[in-house]
């Protein structure tokens, strides 16, 4: 779906001050897509798409050794990137001048094999009790890299225990396995001019459209009536909560004064709101 179409879907929605990726997927199934009319006097069963994907781990392993699973994520490409960044950072610090007797004065560039040994020792330390593990240069250097770096896209949230941090938007399986993630980096997080929260979901889900997946979303940023329309058009089921102030929500649902145990229902095409 092109950006103009997405913007048409989002017309009237209160937008955040952010920006989405596009998708060219088109529904192959006939499905009732919502219009401007909500019905409160019916109670039909929602149409759900049958899952047609191939679940489970999509890679070949030599055997069931734990390292082979670890290597899926920490492959040679990632090791080389980390080692390059460590050596570059260390040499930049050295070139800017060191204090007398600094451990970095004895620095020698590391290689991937050395870094793998460091990772292995770090993991072992979580299972075995040693009196001391002395790692002079690398440990000090990594600590300096982690805690002194300045990020222009870090976020401030006064309600959190750690008030400054980096926002990650994650697509996860029901049991917590991370399928994909987007790191918020300010302008440019999403490539085009569609609203940010719509674009985040589109970007994370685009590789999974057309297979009958079910997307579960909360109302913090993501779910809305236009987004639900869009996901249904891409053969993706939707379950989630809605913010009361979204303009395309059914008004009678939002304004209902319900007592404990009462419920109200509205449907529009294949979108059902309780």
UniProtKB/TrEMBL annotation:
InterPro entries attached to this UniProt entry: PGBD
Keyword Iron-sulfur included in the entry's annotation: no
Record key words, sorted: Membrane, Transmembrane, Transmembrane helix
Transmembrane feature ranges: 118-147
PANTHER family: PIGGYBAC TRANSPOSABLE ELEMENT-DERIVED PROTEIN 4
Keyword Transmembrane set for record: yes
Name of this protein: PiggyBac transposable element-derived protein domain-containing protein
Domain PiggyBac transposable element-derived protein: 66-129, 146-273
Domain of life: Eukaryota
């Amino acid at each position: 779906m092109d950006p103009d179409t997405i913007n048409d879907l989002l017309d009237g929605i209160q937008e955040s001050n952010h920006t989405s990726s596009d998708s060219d997927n088109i529904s192959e199934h006939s499905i009732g897509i919502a219009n401007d009319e909500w019905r409160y006097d019916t109670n039909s069963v929602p149409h759900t798409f049958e899952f047609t994907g191939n679940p489970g781990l999509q890679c070949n392993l030599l055997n069931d050794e734990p390292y082979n699973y670890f290597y899926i994520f920490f492959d040679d490409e990632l090791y080389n990137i980390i080692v390059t960044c460590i050596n570059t950072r260390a040499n930049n610090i050295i070139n800017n001048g060191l204090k007398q007797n600094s451990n970095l004065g004895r620095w020698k560039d590391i290689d991937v094999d050395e870094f793998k040994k460091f990772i292995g020792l770090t993991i072992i330390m979580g299972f075995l009790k040693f009196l001391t593990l002395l790692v002079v240069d690398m440990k000090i250097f990594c600590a300096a890299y982690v805690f002194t770096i300045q990020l222009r896209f870090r976020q401030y949230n006064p309600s959190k225990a750690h008030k400054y941090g980096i926002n990650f938007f994650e697509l996860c399986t029901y049991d917590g396995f991370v399928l994909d993630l987007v790191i918020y980096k300010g302008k440019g997080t999403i490539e085009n001019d569609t609203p940010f929260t719509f674009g985040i979901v589109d970007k994370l889900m685009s590789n999974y459209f057309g297979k009958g997946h079910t997307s579960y979303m909360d109302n913090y940023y993501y779910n809305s009536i236009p987004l639900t329309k869009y996901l249904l058009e891409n053969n993706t089921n939707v379950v989630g909560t809605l913010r009361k102030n979204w303009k395309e929500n059914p008004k009678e649902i939002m304004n209902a004064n319900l007592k404990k145990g009462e419920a109200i229902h509205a449907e529009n095409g294949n979108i059902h709101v309780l």
